[in-house]
Write the structure tokens for this entry.
Amino acid sequence: MTKPVTVAVTGAAGQICYNLLFRLASGETFGDRPVHLKLLDLPIPAVQKAAEGVAMELMDCGYKTLSGVTVTGDPNEAFDGINWALLVGAKPRGPGMLRKDLMLENGPIFTTQGNAIARGADDVRVLVVGNPCNTNALIAASNCAGVPNDRFTAMTRLDQNRAVAQLAMKAGVTNADISHVTIWGNHSATQYPDFENARIGGKPAAEVIGDLNWLQNDFIKTVQQRGKAIINARGKSSAASAANAAIDHVKSFENATAPGDWFSAAVVSDGSYGVPEGLICSFPVTSDGKGGFEIVQGLEMSDWAQGKLAATIAELQQEQTVVSHLLG
Ligand code: NAX
């Protein structure tokens, strides 16, 4: 029998996981390979009970690809022998809470989990979804001795998907006509959704849309502020679309990228595009489908776009300073 892909997912009792776990188990993400899911949530009886309920529902789907489900409150058990860790669980930002306070609240979760991954796994890939995801990924990577930091990624795929949908609506085309959309920088309101390199039906997006003012202002702002707009409308943060983006992220790394194409993911900077080495920054990325990836080189950016990139890098650097005491 084929060895299962073992996937640890944190925040298992939360709303993103309720949309995510089923799609990891069903065969949609890992094809016909069997999947063992390890669900981690807080070691609080009510929370564990809720995670157990999710595990029961997973079993009740009768997926042929689901080879097992483990529910635990112990990070060491969760991360033992895994191939992927999807770090979704984190405390939500409370009313009036500053981003800095959120970082200081959530940072220690990722030192603990980085250490536990180091103890339990070697050939592992990590996706951080819990916010602030870039900086949480930086914390986990720097507390995970023995696992190379290029195994740690953070999720900007939801931002990419949001940008695709906005461009398609404006151009009056389908999402399938949009390609080469890059999110640069931080998964935050400073991110830069790059329309200069995006294409619509293979042509430059700016040429097709013909409205630079909309692209430079409304488009970027809509994508940057979309998370807030969802909370205002739904009363809860994005869950199904976030889970969908996490599935897209994992699939993009698991499979070879089509020649000439790319996707957005926050990965460790190697100094490309002047982003300081070591920051976990969103770039255009290609995957070889065998565990290797590359940052796409040579994309042109106007002075205006470089200003946007500089602003989001500055924010990542500030965040790095705030959590410097947590970087191992
Ligand atoms: P929920 O509050 O519904 O669920 C979070 C779950 O994490 C809870 O069950 C909680 O008990 C658990 N948890 C907390 N600390 C934990 C720990 N130390 N170990 C294991 N589990 C722990 O939040 P949900 O809507 O699922 O969102 C989860 C995270 O995703 C949040 O940080 C949120 O900000 C972030 N998001 C990131 C996005 C991205 O694009 N990168 C978009 C969506 C989302 O906002």
About this structure: The chain has a mean pLDDT of 97. The chain has eleven helices and 14 strands. The radius of gyration is 19 Å. The chain has two domains: 5-154, 157-322.
